[in-house]
Design a protein that fits this description.
heterodimer, A: alpha+beta, Alpha-Beta Plaits, 3-stranded mixed beta sheet, two-stranded antiparallel ribbon, 9 helices, 9 strands, B: mainly alpha, Formate dehydrogenase/DMSO reductase fold
């Protein structure tokens, strides 16, 4: 079978087109994405965390962040409820344990690296990308600085360089993507002296968590936070205290963020397809009405004139 | 008699000029601060509150209040309501200026405004509602510019180009309605992604529809409101047709706004029922919600209806102010007041005076441009060379 050059190019073009269409179409559907196979995750066992801030220090070092306001050895900062900032991609906060008073619990907060990230779906310039390693990475070279990612993130993680006049960036945890692709552990995981953080394949991390529930049922709440929250995340948490007590939201649901806007976006073709037809129809109807009104008027005028004329001519006949 | 009115007008305008000068001076200085020091230098924005009044007022309210253009032009050209023809040009002009100012304001708000074309030319984030908003607003701004251009071309004497553009009227109007439907609703759809941050009374899967319907209310009410102001300051620029039709416009648009508000009230109640959110009405936010729904939706609907029934132009005009305020209140509620309601008061946002200063500066630019254009171009009257051309 011989194929002409033109035919071949046509096929290539069609294939290219269908890939693009396929891509954008799937982005607006409710297709379930369970994460890239063999992607990594980090399991944070809050029952093992002692709030030493070693992870914060390591994060600061590997990401070349400016020195903190208070040194990492100062543990009094744990008392206040801190959030991620442009200078700190991860923070550890201390909470009272409602089950055991006097035994506080610690929770390390950073980007959860959602399987279907709200930030990535909200970004109008695709500055965020879920990589195959599991990390959600950000590309400052295209970012416009609209900050919709910060609005969209249900975990309130992305931070913005408000003090930068010309080159403001979004700043957040990268799950140490550059280190991971070189075969190194994320900075925080490597630094943790208590093995409260475990790094590995996401499926394995879930298995480890379940195994711990089985072995120590009294120690844990039987729930892996992040397994399904917001469609699942690449950071997973287990805890002895209810997650709510650790300042984590339990009302986020399991629907991935892109699904929340998919419905609205899929109405675009309906509007684009339906409105012009409908409006052109209405225009035609009103135009026609106008024409009828005009002919009616003309007829009425004509008949009135006729009547007038015949009335005028009648007396003449009589006389 | 005529002399007296001109004298009064002059004194009003010189006061206006004085205020305008101050606002422009402060605005230029604030602009310098913004671009020399970044957003942090002039705003109270934070990592918890990335969007302030430049989004809630300048973008969300700006776009809604500029809806008069598509509402009026579709009524006249598509639905054949010829008796409102004299309202089209002022509505298109304010729509065009409104969108142009929204674009200007966005340049202040985003971190790197010179990259605003990136979503169109570098990488398209098609999964983002903001992408749709950006694309539609950019396209619609162009459409409004073309729709407005005949007035400028009549002024400049470009007859042939003007006649060519006028031939496109129907096409442009349909295009305008399609684009407006999409981005007016999408501005609401921006908040579909934050069920965990926006108070349940305001968060609804109907929010795109709410935003679209209120844009119609805003468009109708703004036409009435602007016509009131124009009659006060630019009556000398109006021709006989405009003056004769003006009362009909106020009555007709008031009646339409009354119906649309009533319908909006109904779908808001429907939203509350379908979400079974009645118990929230007993809370503090519930009271605030009722203030919005009863005081700024039900009340203007009723007052418009009464105004039309008793043919009170004064009542209709004042009601238009109430309805416009209602739309502004709604946008502030969604974007600021009910947003981040779960956060402690210390983490909530309140605008810095300099943010307000920039917003006032941008509105002032709009007023100056409006005055410049209506005193020169055939907006409130028909150009003598093009009478009966429509």
């Amino acid at each position: 079978m011989s194929i002409s050059r033109r035919k071949f190019l046509g096929w290539v073009g069609a294939a290219g087109l269908s890939t693009t269409i396929g891509k954008s179409a799937s982005a607006a559907t409710n297709k379930h994405f369970a994460g890239y196979p063999d992607s990594f995750a980090i399991l944070h066992d809050t029952t093992l965390c002692v709030g030493c801030r070693s992870c914060e220090a390591a994060c600061n070092k590997v990401n070349d962040l400016p020195p903190p306001d208070r040194p990492f050895t100062d543990l009094s900062v744990l008392e206040t409820r801190r959030r991620t900032t442009t200078k700190a991609f991860t923070v550890v906060n201390k909470y009272d344990n409602p089950k055991k008073s006097g035994h506080p619990v610690f929770y390390k907060k950073q980007c959860n690296h959602c399987l279907e990230p709200a930030c990535a779906s909200a970004c109008f310039v695709r500055a965020f990308k879920k990589t195959k390693t599991g990390a959600v990475v950000y590309d400052p070279s295209v970012c416009v600085g609209c900050r919709y990612c910060m609005i969209a993130c249900p975990f309130e993680i992305p931070t913005y360089e408000y003090d930068q006049a010309l080159t403001p960036r979004i700043r957040k945890c990268t799950m140490c993507h550059p280190r991971v692709i070189e075969g190194q552990l994320p900075g925080c995981v490597e630094a943790c002296p208590m093995e409260a953080l475990s790094f590995g394949k996401r499926e394995d991390m879930i298995k480890i968590a379940r195994e711990r529930f089985r072995k120590y049922p009294d120690r844990y709440v039987n729930h892996i936070y992040g397994e399904n929250e917001m469609g699942g995340t690449s950071w997973l948490y287990v805890s002895g205290a209810p997650f709510k007590a650790l300042g984590m939201r339990e009302d986020l649901g399991i629907k991935p963020a892109p699904e929340l806007t998919a419905g609205a976006l899929s109405s675009v073709p309906i509007i684009v397809g339906l409105w012009p037809v409908l409006l052109a129809g209405i225009y035609a109807v009103s135009k026609r009405k106008e024409k009828f009104a005009q002919t009616d008027q003309e007829e009425a005028v004509a008949s009135a004139l006729d009547k007038d004329r015949s009335e005028q001519s009648q007396p003449e006949e009589e006389s | 008699m005529a002399h007296v009115t001109t004298g009064e007008r002059k004194s009003i305008f010189s006061l206006f000029n004085f205020i305008a000068l101050i606002v422009l001076g402060v605005g230029i200085y604030l602009t310098y601060l913004r671009f020399a020091g970044g957003l942090g230098a002039v705003t109270n924005l934070s990592d918890y509150n990335p969007w302030g009044i430049w989004i809630s007022f300048d973008l969300l309210c700006g776009v809604a209040l500029a809806a008069g253009g598509y509402v009026t032009s579709s009524a006249v050209y598509l639905f054949g309501m010829k008796k409102y023809h004299s309202a089209v040009r002022p509505a298109i002009l304010t729509g065009f200026l409104g969108y142009a100012l929204v674009f200007l304001a966005i340049n202040y708000d985003v971190g790197r405004p010179w990259r605003l074309p990136y979503p169109l030319v570098v990488q398209q984030g098609t999964t983002s509602v903001l992408f749709e908003v950006g694309l539609c607003v950019a396209t619609y701004l162009t459409v409004l510019f073309i729709e407005f251009s005949p007035a400028a071309m009549e002024w400049l004497g470009l007859k042939r180009a003007r006649n060519l553009v006028v031939k496109l009227t129907i096409l442009l109007t349909i295009f305008g309605v399609v684009l407006s439907t999409m981005h007016q609703s999408s501005l609401g759809a921006l908040f579909l992604i934050v069920p965990s941050k926006l108070h349940p009374l305001w968060y609804s899967s109907y929010i795109p529809i709410y935003f679209f319907v209120t844009s119609i209310v805003a468009g109708l009410s703004m036409v009435i409101f602007e016509s009131t102001l124009s009659h006060r300051f630019f009556a000398h620029k109006m021709d006989e047709t405009h003056l004769k039709e003006a009362n009909g416009v106020t009555l007709g648009f008031g009646k339409a706004a009354s119906y649309v508000l009533a319908g909006y009230f109904a779908i808001k109640v429907l939203g509350i029922s379908s979400g079974n959110l009645w118990h929230y009405l007993k809370t503090g936010y519930g009271t605030w919600y009722l203030v919005e729904l009863l005081g700024f939706v039900a009340l203007p609907s009723l007052l418009y209806a009464i105004g039309v029934r008793v043919k009170s132009l004064t009542l209709i005009k004042w009601t238009s102010v109430l309805a416009v305020l209602g739309v502004i209140l709604n946008r502030f509620n969604v974007c600021l007041i009910a947003f981040n309601w779960h956060l402690p008061a210390s983490e909530r946002y309140f605008p810095h005076w300099m943010e307000i200063g920039i917003s006032v500066f941008i509105v002032m630019i709009g007023l100056i441009l409006y005055r410049f254009i209506v005193t020169r171009m055939p907006i409130l009257y028909e150009h003598s060379d093009y009478k009966d051309a429509h």
